[in-house]
Design a protein that fits this description.
This protein is α/β, with parallel strands linked by helices. It has 9 helices and 12 strands. It has a 6-stranded mixed β-sheet, sandwiched between helices. A 3-stranded antiparallel β-sheet has the order 3-5-4. α7 runs parallel beside α9. Bound molecules: ligand 48H. Ligand 48H binds next to α2, β2, β7 and α8.
Length: 261
Amino acid sequence: MEINEIVISRAIVERFFEKLLSNLEPDVAIVGGGPSGLVAGYYLARAGRKVALYERKLSIGGGMWGGGMMFNEIVVQQGALSVLDEFGISYRPCGEEGYYTADSVEATSTLTSMAVKAGVSVFNCVSVEDVMIRPDRIVGLVINWSPVEMSGLHVDPLAVRAPFVVDATGHAVEVVRVVEKKVPGALMTGSGKVEGEKSMWSNRAESLTLENTREVYPGLYVTGMAANATFGGPRMGAIFGGMLLSGQKVANDILVKLENR
Ligand code: 48H
């Protein structure tokens, strides 16, 4: 067989445009491919929903690859082992009852692989720069290539429609901050604004992450660190049970809403 460069180019262009065109109106648009976004996407797609996930960086996985301070192990508490089991991620007890460790490279790559195999369409190198609001509900996202954002080129974006959007952008809580800026005072937080992430307190943070995983503006949900940053929860360090359970919770909440539409 003779390898032809133009066949290669056409195959990639055609397949990518297929993917892009079939995701202009997903059921759920997830912003951020860290652990919470990946887990959310997996459970939504596994339930048969069309899910598009946008990740600014080339690689998916957010802050989980580096474990704690680049020691590439993560800690997961007993209460979240069911999620590791669901994904088939190995873990070991670490000596203290209720605490387990997992290899962060295995965990991150497996979450990514399982999300994609469940049907999540991942768009890496794509940044979400704005939202669509009609008139008091999020109805979609405004996207652009990350290299456009990084280079500061003046290139207009494209838009996708989705009845539900998940902000899984981590500490930066980027989508919620756009809404905060464009519709002042409208967030469903105590102050109507982003409350801001608090200093480390792992025990409180892990339970608050779940409480904070909810709708913050009609159609817009927060998960993972973005949930804590939005509602004023503390950070927790390199323990990831809360992130995994938060992704599962946001998926379940949105599935219920999708069923009742
Ligand atoms: C497209 C974007 C945009 C955008 C950001 O930070 P993440 O890993 O997020 P989580 O919440 O799933 O996990 C948090 C965890 O990694 C962590 O940081 C913990 C547990 N910290 C504890 C502590 O004490 O510090 O992933 C977010 C992803 C990243 O990959 C970003 O590149 C991406 O979102 N992203 N993608 N458009 N506007 N903003």
